[in-house]
Amino acid sequence: MRSLLILIAFIISLPSSAQQLVFLGNLQDAGAPQFNCDKSCCLIERPNEYVASIGVYSEDEAFLFDATPDFTHQARFLQKQSKTKLSGVFLTHAHMGHYTGLMHIGREASNERSLAVYAMPRMADFLENNGPWDQLVQLNNIEVKRLSGPENLETISVTPIQVPHRDEYSETVGYLIKGVNKTAFYLPDIDKWNVWDQSIIELIQSIDYAIIDGTFLAEGEIERPMSEIPHPFISETIALLESLPKTEKNKVWFTHFNHTNPVRDKNHPIRVKLENEGYHFAEFAKEISLN
Ligand SMILES: [Zn+2]
Ligand SMILES: [Zn+2]
Ligand SMILES: [Zn+2]
């Protein structure tokens, strides 16, 4: 009898549900098709391509990372998967593809009550002191939560890690997301790996999943000077990670693809080759476990 009680107590103490990370988008801020692009990248429309975002959920909580222009589809899908209400949104920075989705929760839209929006101090100031975002604060549609270190929630802990990026209106962060057993790092935007004071290689070695900036495949992909909009090219990232074993390359998920990036095509030979080497590419609705 006693052992039966111990067994029941053990079962009750187990985590109540699976904890999943779901990919909700994989495109750069402006998505696709892009205004005034007449090239083949924007003539072929692909279903379920949204701006880069992820969700992390269990039976108890559901968090969205970035509020993109596609927020409505992404938050609805996250709530459908988690069967729970959106618990909050973590913002990475004040570039248009990463926070303007907040428009969907204001008075003109769903008129949310005190949705938790986690942001770094400059990002929080930006929302509180600039219209139309300050109205979301004044009307209590959102409750801005200032980040200064790890945020320990019921089932996950989220730590912002600052990175160099074009910080006109806010600082830029990636998020280290510690789940029940596994840790993921989400970093849609960074200028270049070599201007960061941390090593992406060491970071990858210390975690389970690295969902990172794959905006452009290589130099020459767009006509304007690419140094004006720096990102680590996928070609540079794979060269940097070349000596790592396949088990480490397997942790990498590229995301935040520019409309011009050929890896948007699942059958593109370069993408297929990189997948054979162990790399992954973010895709809407794909899930990985944090258990
Ligand atoms: Zn971006
Ligand atoms: Zn295009
Ligand atoms: Zn950006």
- Sheet with the most strands, sense and barrel status: 7 strands, mixed
Q: Any low-confidence stretches, pLDDT <50, length ≥5?
A: none
Give the cofactors and ligands.
zinc ion
Structure annotation, total helices: 10
Order of helices and strands: HEHEEHEHEHHEEEEEHEHHEHEE
Biggest sheet, spatial arrangement of strands: 6-5-4-3-2-1-14
Helix content: 25-40%
Number of E strands:
14
**In the CATH hierarchy, what is the architecture at level 2?**
4-Layer Sandwich
Output the structural class.
alpha/beta
Beta-strand portion reads 15-25%
CATH topology: Metallo-beta-lactamase, Chain A
Q: Shape from CA axes?
A: globular
Gyration radius, in Å: 20 Å
Number of domains: 1
Q: For this entry, what is the oligomeric state of its chains?
A: single chain
Q: What's the CATH C level?
A: Alpha Beta
Molecular structure report:
By secondary structure, the protein is of the alpha/beta class. It has one domain (18-289): Ribonuclease Z/Hydroxyacylglutathione hydrolase-like (Metallo-beta-lactamase, Chain A, 4-Layer Sandwich). The chain contains 10 helices and 14 strands. The protein has a 7-stranded mixed beta sheet with strand order 6-5-4-3-2-1-14. The chain has a 7-stranded mixed beta sheet with strand order 7-8-9-10-11-12-13, with helices on one face. Strand 8 (157-163) and strand 9 (172-178) form a beta hairpin. The model has no long low-confidence stretch (mean pLDDT 95). Bound molecules: zinc ion (ZN) (3 copies). One zinc ion (ZN) binds next to helix 2.
